[in-house]
Amino acid sequence: MKHSTIQQTRRGQRGPARQxxxxxxxxxxxxxxxxxxxxxxxxNWSGNPSDSVLTATDVSSARDxxxxxxxxxxxxxxxxxxxxxxxxxxxxxxxxLQQAVHDRPSLGQHCASIARALGRAAVRVYGPPxxxxxxxxxxxxxxxxGVAAMHG
Length: 152
Fold this sequence. Notes:
The chain is elongated, with a radius of gyration of 27 Å. It is mainly alpha-helical. Helix 6 (108-126) packs parallel to helix 8 (142-151). 72% of the residues lie in helices and 0% in strands.
């Protein structure tokens, strides 16, 4: 009888190893997810050959940037249009570029560089022949010159 009493007592108790195991089972997935989000890669749609790996330092500096000065309107517009190009097609992005320049003439001086960035990104996504099919005379054919620069 003594033997069965000892086994029942041990089953009811939680030893330090079991508590540590449960704690790790709860904490480890959270740590892995957080460390994974800090080691994110991003797609470089801008055509800029800069490093495309976003490091933990970049994440913290991005947070600092949010608290600092706001981004320039042309940079915000370019990023929005590059996202549209990826999610929709270059025609939609070019139409929105044309509308944005019409609504805010101050963006006109950046129109050609944004259109060239869209052209380079379109080549990466659709290939040269298909990207060229979206060309239209937005910002003095800068989109077409962006496509040509990537193709030739």
